[in-house]
Write a structure and sequence with these properties.
The structure holds 3 protein chains of 3 kinds. Chain A is α+β, with helices and mostly antiparallel strands. Chain A contains 9 helices and 12 strands. Chain A folds into 3 domains: 73 residues; 111 residues, Immunoglobulin-like, CATH 2.60.40.420; 90 residues, Cupredoxins -  blue copper proteins (Immunoglobulin-like, Sandwich), CATH 2.60.40. In chain A, the strands form 4 sheets. In chain A, strands 3-2-1-5-8 form a 5-stranded mixed β-sheet, with no helix packed on it. In chain A, strands 4-10-9 form a 3-stranded mixed β-sheet. Chain C is mainly α. Chain C has a domain of 135 residues. The chains are: A alpha+beta, B mainly alpha, C mainly alpha. Chains in contact: A-B, A-C, B-C. Chain B: It comes from Rhizobium fredii. Chain B: Its cofactor is heme c.
């Protein structure tokens, strides 16, 4: 399937692009490794088949031959040898197809055999963000966060995938293949990272206006760091530590924010928008759309529809003096 | 004939544009400005002062606004008291008896300012744009909006006929005496 | 001259009674289309309707191409704000919908409507009035969806309209309803044409054209018609269920009430995968015809190609689930679909090998049609092979719904259908118009298209592997997809430019092109046995087929059949397998009723978007026009 002209043109781009953070070709987990290897096996075989077919075609065109006076006068000898060649090519095709099917089935067995893991997460797709619940046998140790998944390195994590509205698809290419989130169903997916780092993923099934801005980040930590993070997330939000943030909290609780968002430890208990209890500790905001910093946060609060047109976060009229405390408060939710 | 056709075509264009427009940013007319004016109105059923009356029309004739209203009706738990319009601890919304008036402006005001005996005020809690959307949706429950813009069923359990199959009835302009006034004192 | 004369007891003039010089004029008067607007709208001539079909198909290709240009402009830069998400969703939906429903399927059928009756040597298609009706329904359905788009009611859920996104809760307004109804429109039309093609091939073949003398072109169109008949009802059922869910509150796709969103996907892809082959099989028809003519020998392995066409047809119904590998279906079942998806490579491979063998043994003449067929090999084989990769469940979980898939199916569809189609236009343009397209412009067109196509679509494989999902209206700069997308956009520009060359070539050549003559390529099939363009009655005498490559076998004089009526529309019906003359059947006269029926059906379809009563009120009117259409006339039938 490789075609040479394009390859030559694109070679520099390919070489430059091997360090993507959302790439099938940058596997960082055992499952993604398996998939990448399988991909390269298939690519090698089909590229060889393409090259052979094209070589035969070119030979067929360049071959020297005498012109035929009557197109209907065919040589039986040539016909027979061509029949043999076509038959052999068809048999070879069949053999390749069978071999590839078996290879594919083997990989499939390895990928989907087990759905067991220590850590189970409930991932719920919303238009256009991800709700992530860390389940625990003790209800008090279960907690909810959004758009950011933290996992311990080297440990398989089971995701239970559900949707609250339309069909989405969970895809972090460096860790595993994708799986759809379908209303009324629960699909299972195991992800596992072999290296500490931040991996980006994105919704892969068209889900409406902001399908393009429905990303999530997976952060892989060492086991100790992960436990520390988990403990911090279980706790409720700390009360604001300075007057500006205190004022920000008042604004949050008296303005429309409180209708949709939850901040554990305050009266804000909306469940239809991302949980903001530890918002300040997240890397991104608006489902992976912007880096989480002061400027972006203020921009997002002032004009969400300019950044993600059609998103469900409404344009809230806030006074100029209200933005600063609100941003400070949210930043402080670590 | 040619003129008639072109006029009909132009009308169709305009109607379609309005009905299908997805206006993500609220228009400047429908901003918080209205809220500060209506703050003084305490009598039931009075249409908000100085409000362009056709704001309601713009919301009621737009399929996107109506469906957003429907989503917000669920999200803000209007269902908790009004069920799916059939009423519960709050009055039914899909019948033709309106305590505080069934015109668009009445409903918007009811949501914004609240009413005695249980309806809370959502002033400042719901942006005006969304109040309009919810009010328009509430009107669609009673079949007061164009049926080709009104929302259809949910992907949900449906314990009732959908909004757009209910019988129509004229809106009540002024409003009736609240239940508290009828009860023996 | 070997001649079979059919005797009939009736007293009317037969072609044996007419002097040779007079015959063409008298037949043309019988079969011709009346002058004036009413005449033009009433015509039942398969060539006139076929020509309109082809032009309409290319018109929609042009509109779909404009949508593609808009998509490419928006994606050329990261974080582009040229087109917002609302409009972008409408545009990419219109692109897919137009290319699949309004161009891909109809253009193959359009070519069949024009060419199949000529190739089997008959005077008109079977059910010519239905043919006119199906064209009008297709035209009105296509115009409806594009007018809706212009009025901001364009569908915005993708050409696949997955529920619940396209369902009542998440798609307010009438956009998805217009889409669902447009599907019903085009499928009614496609089904009607499929029936006509099947009957034409089975019953109207010239005497002597036994099953093993049917041209490969006709075989491919015949198999294709069966695919349409079995695949389209699934999507019509689906689109009807969708519109019922949206308008009448049924619960086919509402999981809370026992419906299932996956039901839509099964119904849609049960149609949607054969659809790909419905678009591709006409491509094989064109390639078979062009390869034989320009390699200067019959296609090698006639029976193998026919059998593999039929096998492709059957297998294409067994692989729809490979569009659903990530929906969490049971793994063993998914494996079955991996196997069947890969298996279809075998019949497709055999066809390719046979064509290459034909070129190997023949002496290729490098004219534009053959160049496009060589482009087809180059691109389609690559696309088919990346399809093998997608058939594997594990690989599919990575590349499904990414630009890798976008690259794959553009390689398959543009390589497998559009390149052969353009070759076919260069090949049959002399037959359609009597004039040749310019060879030099044709070469420019070919090289621009081939290079532009690969620059546009090859980088998409890579952007997909590097994580770019489909159907995103923009992407952040830091993703590193910007260079690849810019290259794609530049390639797309080149590709579009090649079609402007084509358009210019068609416009210039149709007026001032070189006069073609009956058989400019010295081809062997029957359409070249008549004048270019063919007369209204196609052939002065219906040919008698003695060989698969008739015009090469009978170079001196063509054996013909005589004894058909001259002053009345009469076609010869032959037996299904042996093609022995069986009946003389009258062919319907022109009438305006198909147009009126199409208008009524359009009114019902569009009206039903707004009120279900449109169906109730429309039914009596529709019955009335159908009664008028079929009102019996006292014409004498010959047996």
């Amino acid at each position: 399937m490789l075609d040479r002209r394009s390859v030559l043109l694109l070679l520099p781009l390919i070489l430059a692009g091997c360090a993507g953070w959302q790439s099938v070709l940058d596997p960082e987990g055992p499952r993604a490794d398996l998939l990448a290897n399988l991909f390269w096996v298939f690519t090698a075989i089909v590229a060889a088949v393409w090259l052979m077919t094209m070589a035969v075609l070119v030979l067929a065109l360049l071959r020297r031959r005498a012109a035929r006076a009557d197109p209907l006068v065919l040589e039986p000898e040539a016909e027979r040898s061509m029949a043999r060649a076509v038959g052999a090519a068809a048999a070879l095709t069949a053999a390749i197809v069978v071999a590839l099917t078996l290879v594919s089935y083997g990989a499939q067995r390895a990928l989907f055999d087990s759905h067991e893991a220590e850590l189970t997460l409930l991932v719920k797709g919303h238009q256009w963000w991800w709700e992530v619940t860390y389940e625990d046998a003790q209800p008090s140790r279960s907690f909810t966060t959004a758009n950011e998944i933290h996992v311990p390195v080297g440990e398989p994590v089971l995701l239970k995938l559900r949707s609250s509205d339309v069909i989405h698809s969970f895809w972090v290419p460096s860790l595993a293949g994708k799986m759809d989130l379908i209303p009324g169903r629960e699909n299972l997916l195991i992800i596992e990272a072999t290296r500490e780092g931040v991996y980006r993923g994105q919704c892969a099934e068209f889900c409406g206006w902001q399908h393009a801005h429905m990303a999530m980040t997976v952060v892989a930590h060492s086991a100790e760091d992960f436990e520390r993070w988990r403990e911090s997330q279980i706790s409720a939000a700390k009360p604001p530590d300075n007057p500006v943030r205190k004022r920000g909290m008042e604004i949050f609780l008296t303005r429309p924010c409180v209708m949709c968002h939850q901040i554990r430890g305050t009266p804000a208990a909306g469940r239809v928008a991302p949980d903001l209890t530890h918002f300040g500790s997240r890397l991104h905001l608006a489902a992976g759309t912007l880096a989480n910093n002061r400027g972006n946060l203020a921009a997002w609060i002032i004009d969400p529809q300019g950044i993600k047109p059609g998103a469900h976060m409404p344009l809230v009229k806030l006074g100029a003096e209200e933005i600063e405390p609100l941003v400070s408060y949210l930043e402080g939710l670590r | 004939m040619k003129h008639l056709l072109s006029i009909a075509a132009a009308l169709a264009v305009l109607a379609a544009c309005e009905r299908e427009d997805r206006e993500f940013r609220p228009s400047p007319v429908a901003t918080e400005g209205e809220a500060s004016i209506t703050l003084s109105s305490i009598s039931p059923g009075v249409v908000g002062l100085g409000t362009p009356r056709d704001i309601g029309k713009a919301y009621e004739e737009n399929a996107y606004h109506l469906s957003e209203g429907k989503r917000l009706f669920n999200w803000f738990n209007c269902k908790g008291c009004h069920a799916n319009g059939g009423g519960g601890s709050g009055p039914a919304l899909m019948d033709d008896s309106w305590i505080y008036g069934g015109e668009f402006q009445n409903i918007a005001q009811t949501i914004r300012e609240g009413r005695p005996n249980g309806m809370p005020s959502f002033r400042g809690k719901i942006p005006d744009e969304q109040i309009m959307q919810i009010a328009a949706y509430v009107r669609s429950m009673e079949r007061q909006v164009h049926q080709d813009a009104a929302p259809s069923r949910d992907d949900d359990l449906m314990p009732r006929p959908s909004e757009h199959r209910l019988p129509t009835s004229p809106p009540v302009a002024g409003g009736t005496v609240p239940p508290s006034g009828q009860a023996p004192q | 001259m070997s001649e079979t004369v059919l005797r009939s007891p009736s007293k009317e003039a037969l072609d044996t009674d007419v002097k040779d010089g007079e015959l063409p004029a008298r037949l043309a008067a019988t079969w011709g289309t009346a002058a004036g607007l009413i005449g033009a709208l009433s015509t039942v001539d398969h060539k006139i309707i076929g020509r309109r079909y082809i032009i309409t198909g290319f018109f929609f290709l042009f509109l779909g191409g404009l949508a593609a240009v808009a998509i490419r402009l928006q994606l050329a830069r990261p974080d582009n704000t040229l087109i917002g998400p609302d409009l972008y969703d409408q545009i990419f939906t219109m692109h897919g919908t137009t290319m699949m429903f309004l161009f891909g399927v109809p253009i193959g059928e359009a070519m069949a409507v024009y060419l199949v009756p000529l190739m089997v040597g008959t005077r008109n298609i079977a059910f010519p009035r239905l043919n006119a009706f199906s064209y009008y329904v297709y035209l009105f359905g296509g115009l409806m969806i594009w007018i809706a788009f212009a009025l901001n009611i364009g569908p915005d859920n993708g050409w696949f309209s997955y529920v619940p996104l396209a369902g009542p809760e998440f798609s307010p307004g009438k956009r998805a309803d217009f889409w669902a109804q447009m599907v019903t429109f085009t499928e009614v039309s496609a089904l009607a044409v499929a029936v006509e093609i099947i009957i034409t091939v089975l019953k109207l073949r010239a005497p002597g054209m036994t099953l093993d003398r049917i041209p490969l072109f006709v075989w491919a169109m015949f198999v294709n018609a069966f695919l349409i008949i079995f695949a389209m009802p699934a999507v019509m059922l689906g689109s009807t269920m969708l519109i019922l869910d949206r308008l009448l509150d049924t619960h086919f796709f509402n999981q809370a009430e026992g419906g299932d969103p996956l039901l839509w996907q099964h119904l849609f892809w049960f149609f949607g995968h054969p659809e790909v082959y419905i678009i591709f099989l006409p491509g094989t028809a064109f390639v078979s015809a062009i390869v034989a003519t320009f390699a200067r020998r019959p296609v090698f392995g006639y029976s193998a190609v026919v059998l593999s066409l039929i096998a492709t047809g059957f297998l294409s119904f067994g692989l729809w689930v490979h569009h659903m590998f990530t929906t969490g279906l049971p793994q063993l079942g998914a494996t079955f679909f991996t196997a069947s998806s890969m298996m279809i490579a075998i019949p497709s491979g055999i066809q390719i090998f046979c064509w290459i063998a034909t070129l190997w043994d023949g002496k290729p003449v490098y004219r534009t049609p053959l160049l496009f067929v060589l482009g087809f090999f180059f691109i389609f084989v690559a696309g088919g092979l990346s399809g093998i990769m997608l058939a594997s469940v594990p690989i599919d979980t990575q590349v499904h719904d990414t630009y890798f898939v976008v690259a794959h199916f553009h390689y398959v569809l543009i390589g497998g259908a559009v390149f052969p189609l353009i070759g076919a236009i260069y090949y049959w343009f002399p037959k359609f118009t009597g004039r040749m397209l310019r060879e030099g412009l044709g070469r420019w067109h070919f090289w621009l298209a081939l290079i532009g196509f690969n620059i546009a679509f090859f980088p998409m494989h890579i952007s997909g592997l590097r994580g770019m999902p489909r159907r995103v209206y923009t992407y952040p700069a830091e993703m590193g997809w910007d260079a690849l997308n810019l290259v794609s956009t530049l390639g797309a520009t080149l590709f579009v430019a090649s079609f402007l060359v084509f358009l210019y070539n068609v416009v210039v050549s149709s007026r001032g092109g070189e006069i073609a003559g009956d058989n400019p390529w010295d081809a062997s099939t029957l359409e070249w046995a008549t004048t270019s363009p063919p007369p209204p009655h196609n052939f002065d005498h219906v040919p008698f087929v003695t060989s698969r490559e008739l015009l090469w076998a009978e170079r001196q004089t063509l054996p013909v059949v005589a004894g058909l009526a001259v002053d009345k529309r009469e076609v010869l019906v032959t037996t299904t397998t042996q093609a022995l003359p069986d009946l003389k059947e009258s062919s319907p006269d022109p009438t305006i009723w198909p147009l009126i029926s199409a208008i009524v059906v359009t009114a019902i379809f569009i009206g039903s978007i707004f009120t279900p009563w449109a169906v109730a009120w429309g039914a009596p009117v529709a019955s009335f026009v159908i009664i008028a259409w079929f009102w019996p006339k006292s014409t004498e039938e010959n047996v």
